[in-house]
């Protein structure tokens, strides 16, 4: 192999190896946070006839998660309402929470925030939530 091709091949190999190594720690750190958040997940049952989870109460966020997440067993449109000064202040729009996967409904939420889920449908819903 001529010298110019060897140098180019070596340089390309170094860039590829360096790029792979450069991304590995970030990917690992990203995988650790959701695992600890979802490891503290709670199952839920929202009965038919109500739009709220929990009905007549609120949940509290923890230090385990930075976001409020839901994993419904069927597709559901959901939004989060935060308790502020004794009232619930809701997000403007619903988010489609896809069945069988974690969906972020509210991002960067402080620890100890009081909240409830509001569903667009009053049909029964089951699944898990983590916050």
From TrEMBL:
Keywords recorded for this protein, A-Z: Signal
Residues annotated as signal peptide: 1-29
Superkingdom classification of source: Bacteria
Protein name: Secreted protein
Organism: Streptomyces sp. R11
